[in-house]
Design goal:
CATH class: Mainly Beta
Oligomer: single chain
Helix content: under 10%
Number of helices: 1
Strand content: over 45%
Radius of gyration: 18 Å
Number of domains: 1
CATH superfamily: Galactose-binding lectin
Largest sheet: 7 strands, antiparallel
Strand order of the largest sheet: 2-5-12-7-8-10-11
Structural class: mainly beta
């Protein structure tokens, strides 16, 4: 009876413990290349955003969000090969922010819409956020798409961080890591 209990416990423990891999981890120099900045200036806005590494070896996404000229978003995107995220069920982010709400965005190869999930930062406080695939909603130019296919994780070829939703002003988000969870 003891052996059955032990085997059952080990099986459940191994099954419950999720596997992860780093998508972004500046301390390990993972996910530090292939970034692009995409701001509202592509549509006439004047928002600015930047990516850098601070002295603590964390990724910094910062800038100024402007609503002038019909603007209102700033983003950074990490490109990678399709199938990089095959089998991924969720993402875990360790962040320190400014109290603003940000979006984790997934772009899928050959799709017009992208997939977004909001997460709230805490001002000057480290927090860990977990976002499941079910939390992502299809959007295009800031509008939700109804009746659009769910994200196909095997076709995702970029991951991004965005600030929008009329949160005008300076912003800063410090990222310790973003992990993919199987």
């Amino acid at each position: 009876m003891k052996n059955i209990f032990l085997i059952t416990f080990l099986f459940i423990s191994l099954h419950v413990k999720s596997q992860t891999f780093d998508i972004i981890n500046p301390e390990k120099n993972i996910g530090m290349s292939n970034w692009n900045i995409v701001n509202d200036d592509v549509m006439g806005g004047i928002s600015k955003s930047y990516l850098s590494i601070n002295d603590a070896n964390n990724l910094i996404f910062n800038g100024y969000l402007s609503l002038e000229n019909n603007g209102g978003f700033a983003s950074s995107r990490l490109s990678f090969n399709r199938e990089t995220l095959t089998g991924v069920k969720a993402f875990r982010l360790k962040i320190k922010g400014d109290g603003n709400t940000y979006k984790l965005r997934l772009n899928q190869f050959n799709r017009r819409a992208s997939y977004s999930s909001n997460f709230k930062s805490s001002k000057n406080k480290w927090t860990e956020v977990e976002i499941t695939l079910d939390d992502f909603e299809p959007t295009w130019r800031g509008y939700a798409y109804s009746n659009y296919p769910e994200v196909d994780i095997e076709k995702v070829n970029s991951l991004g961080i965005q600030i929008s939703d009329k949160q005008e002003g300076e912003f800063i988000l410090e990222i310790k890591y973003i992990k993919a969870i199987y």
